[in-house]
Description:
alpha+beta; Aminopeptidase; seven-stranded mixed beta sheet; globular
Amino acid sequence: MTIVIRRADLSAEAEEITKLLVDYITTALRELHETFGVEDSPTDVDGLRDSLEEYRDPAKALFVAQDVGEDAADRLVGVAGLRTLEPGVVEVKRMYVVPECRGRRVGSQLLDRLLEEAEHMRAPTVRLDTVRFMADAQRLYRSRGFVERTPYAGTEIPPHLQQYWIFFERDQAAS
């Protein structure tokens, strides 16, 4: 398995990226229901394809992890985005790695690329949120210097669901 992290080509890859995001959101919603009994969703699964257009904005960035190994057929195995919340502050969004590639540092590579991009965007503060049951993701974020914080302005997580999420922040200058 050889992984390449690169900017997404929305013109050519929108359908494949949408499939990854739908898998991510539907799996997370199922787990949210099974773990906490929550039926509500902060994300409209039906609008995921259209939401990709937002990443054409230069204040945002979308990256993919592509397996370019000999037997991989150059398939996408992960996705992650950044969006600007305010000047100097960006948020990690839609970070997902297909289950069969977890534990192979694909998520680490994606997150490291997002942190590099945050520097290029001159954003010393990087924020993100994750559902409380995503322990592996939380370990990864903590390993990169993220610390827990209160919910922040601009989060997509509505107040009535925030109790099921953990919010993180990383000061790029301190890390």
